[in-house]
Amino acid sequence: MKIISTVLILLTSFNLSFQDNAKIIGDWKGALDVQGTSLPLIIHVTEKEGKLLATMDSPEQGAYGLAFDTVSFKEDVLKLSMTSINGTYEGKMKEGKFEGKWSQGGMSLDLNLEKEKK
């Protein structure tokens, strides 16, 4: 009986994690305010073999498909890290949107993300 309970707990945890991941899969748009200039960013979140992946586009800078090294989404908090540019993002999901901070080069800027509707 103990084994069955353990298996059920593991399956339930996996199912909850899958459901959490499903709500962030897609394209998220936002903009950084850098010294009065708006810098649009698009973050693409996908899932492959149960693992979250993300890339970022910065169209104004001509940068597309920049891959994040780490991606996690737990308890409605999205964390992204990209070592190549020493950038990180941490945002909390509230009402289907992320409110968070982009940090890079000693600066920390607000970055709120909304899911792009298809």
Give a brief description.
This protein is of the alpha+beta class. 18% of the residues lie in helices and 59% in strands.
Folded structure, characterized:
- The protein has 118 residues and is α+β, with helices and mostly antiparallel strands.
- The chain has one domain (2-115): Quinohemoprotein amine dehydrogenase alpha subunit, domain 2 (Lipocalin, Beta Barrel).
- 18% of the residues lie in helices and 59% in strands.
- It has 1 helix and 9 strands.
- It has one helix at 2-22, and strands at residues 26-34, 37-48, 51-58, 63-67, 70-74, 77-82, 87-94, 97-104, 107-115.
- Strands 4-3-2-1-9-8-7-6-5 form a 9-stranded antiparallel β-sheet, with helices on one face.
- The chain is globular, with a radius of gyration of 16 Å.
- Mean pLDDT is 88; it is low at 5-18.
SSE map:
Elements lengths: L1 H21 L3 E9 L2 E12 L2 E8 L4 E5 L2 E5 L2 E6 L4 E8 L2 E8 L2 E9 L3
Antiparallel strand pairs: 1-2, 1-9, 2-3, 3-4, 5-6, 6-7, 7-8, 8-9
